[in-house]
Amino acid sequence: MMSLFFRKRCRYCLNSLGARPRVARIREKIKEHRRLAALIAMIVVLAIAGTLGGVYARNRQLEAAHTQALEACEDSSEKLTAAEEGLQQEIQSDGTRVALKVSSDQVADGTTVDALKDATRYDMPAVASCVASLSTDMLDSNAKKNRDVFRCLVGIKAKT
């Protein structure tokens, strides 16, 4: 009589013998779903960690490239400033001043005097700025400009 009561009341849990095989199956499914949920949660956590790690590594790479570009720009700026100071000292020296006072018709080879005068008349372009707030591309561009002007100044200095 009691089995009939339970059968009517809980038809999902009881079979004809009164055992509860469906409850065991339901519990097993719940365990499987918990394992699946834990697996999905681990996959999501790993995906988020991988994404954050990739973003961090990329930022470090960009920061290193910016630092390298800044150092190259500052180095080229320092070299350019030193070359300009050296050229100014050469131009201001006594020997150059005397040579500049000589006219081309006073010597046998006037082209040398003209070349010296042309070499000492130059318009020094401004040194390209190397500020840390500039982008990496701008720093690279400014470093290239400074190197090009430096090569030009070295060529002028070689002529004098």
Distance between the termini: 122 Å
Cα gyration radius (Å): 42 Å
Which blocks of ≥5 consecutive residues have pLDDT under 50? 3-9
Q: Helix and strand string, N-terminal first?
A: HHHHH
The largest β sheet comes out as: none
Portion of residues within helices: over 70%
Strand content: under 5%
* Whole-number count of domains: 1
Derived from helix and strand composition plus strand pairing, the structural class reads mainly alpha
Average pLDDT level: 80
Please, how many helices?
5
The number of E-state strands comes to: 0
Shape: rod-shaped
Describe this structure in words.
Helix 2 packs parallel to helix 5. By secondary structure, this protein is mainly alpha-helical. The protein is rod-shaped and about 120 Å long. It has one domain. Mean pLDDT is 80; it is low at 3-9. It has helices at residues 2-9, 21-92, 94-101, 110-120, 136-159. It is built from five helices and no strands.
Salient structural properties:
5 helices, disordered N terminus, 160 residues, mainly alpha
Summarize the helices and strands and which ones pair or pack:
Layout: H1 2-9, H2 21-92, H3 94-101, H4 110-120, H5 136-159
Helix pairs in contact: 2-5
